[in-house]
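Q: Hi! First time doing this. I have a protein sequence and I read that you can turn it into a structure. Is that right? Here it is:
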Amino acid sequence: MRASNVRARKLALPSMGPARGEKPTFGAYLQALLDKAGWTQADLGRAADVHPTLIGRWKQGAEISVANARAVANALNRPLLEVLIAAGILTEDESKARDWGPVEAVKLTDDQLVAELRRRLEAAAAPPAGITADEVEAGGERYVTGKPKRSAKLVK
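A: Yes, that's right. Below is the predicted 3D structure, encoded as structure tokens:
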């Protein structure tokens, strides 16, 4: 058998699709969404703000990050959970895990509470007026986080 015939056979195998009972690959999932939307890789790249060659690599089996999965989900108007499962980042069983609700603030350590407040302030587009990521006001008292700043000597 000539080398060109062997190469042609190897290239033909992936187009056969998943075997019976197997889940489609993320690449097949992504291509199906592109086909349904009538989009090219370039269209998705523009909408998700990623390079089209990266989309091609995902279609060929490269792993996608959670951040890029989120961008793809938003661009294609699909639930993020669906994209994460299709990409193999989460399993269907993991997606069914129950959220046991928020943790009570009184059960958090001071460091955990400050870290959560910092995360929320940094995630906000603009912190509320008068509050920075290093300042938190609660119950009329002001708490400052981070490294203590040197101050001038106090004079009475």
